[in-house]
Amino acid sequence: MSWRTTLYEYVHHRNQMELDYSVDPLLPFVQDTAFLQRQHIQLTRRAESDRDRKLVPVKCETRLVIDRVSEQPEHTIAEVTLKRTQFGRIRETVHEERRIEKERLILLADSDGWSISRIEALRTEQALRLRPAAPGAWLEAEDDGSSFDYMRAPSVPFLNRDMIPEWPNAVARAVYNRYAAAFYADLWWDKENPAFLTFEVDCTNYVSQCLFAGGAPMNYTGKRDSGWWYKGRAGGQELWSFSWSVANSLPFYLLTSRRGLRGQEVFAPQDLDIGDCISYDWDGNGRFQHSTVVTAKDANGMPLVNAHTISSKHRYWSYTDSHAWTERTRYRFIHIADSL
């Protein structure tokens, strides 16, 4: 058996694992006990969530793309993309969830063939933080996030129709078009719109694009710590506000804005509408690290969301099956005002 065959067997058995809520299908050829333990915990949480939703798994399909390979006589390192589609049924309604995950696998050769010794997720929803750049420099990641993320009180929106010339009418609407926001979210859930910069942690940038597509006017201040705006790259600088691209800043802006784009916190996910937002605080310390946009409702009236970083379409809002989720996770549910 070749390492490629082992890789395809891994994908096949991952599909079965998702249906069975069990890591048992992987045990014959996956030696990474830490990965198996993490998967066991996630599957247990998902089983509980599906039981609460009365969702019955129907089918799981995964398309494997091998992105990069390093072959050695006794081991192979493969970086892969898993394009997953899961089908589940709530009563008579079938729901389809799609997700794209990237992994690095180390495969070892022995007398019996190949096995997988390590599996590493290359992307998670646990956000990297950014440090302010020197003039002309690009932003870089940092660990503590202490030097930014604090937004100033909002100013009056500035409606600049030349910001994104491809969408001349997007900033001129007076009513938030929720279905235009959701349409954009579904159109770009698995790829990047070349009209915008793409960030390593792209979730909030993507949500802001969805809000903008729904008619939300940019509040252009030219200052990173105020307004909600995007201008791309100019003169060697990346020009956008923290609220546009940083998960901890977007909810602050939405809840303190007095005109134009603004939101109101609601206290139950079922109170959200299409085009609304959810912010995720994985550690429960008040700093939000992930953003999603509501794009559909399940048969129980609960929100399904789209996101970037781990590209997801119509994913159940709670994210309990995420690597980033902890028992301390807190959510902020934000209803976007209809009138802009």
Could you characterize what this model shows?
The structure is a single chain. This protein is an alpha+beta fold and 340 residues long. 37% of the residues are buried. The strands form 3 sheets. Strands 1, 2, 3, 4, 9, 10, 11, 12, 13 and 14 form a 10-stranded antiparallel sheet that branches. A two-stranded antiparallel ribbon has the order 5-6. α3 (178-187) crosses α4. The chain has 6 helices and 14 strands. The model is unreliable at 128-150, 153-163 and 168-172 (pLDDT under 50).
Main sheet?
10 strands, antiparallel
- How far apart lie the N and C ends? 60 Å
- Give the helices and strands as they follow along the chain: HHEEEEEEHHEEHHEEEEEE
- Number of alpha- plus pi-helical segments: 6
**Which oligomerization state do the chains in this entry correspond to?**
single chain
Q: Low-confidence stretches at least 5 residues in length (pLDDT < 50)?
A: 128-150, 153-163, 168-172
Gyration radius, to the nearest Å?
21 Å
The percentage helix is: 10-25%
The mean pLDDT is 88
Described by the principal axes of the CA atoms, the overall outline is globular
Structural category is alpha+beta
Per DSSP E runs of 2 or more residues, the count of β-strands stands at 14
What proportion strand?
A: 25-35%
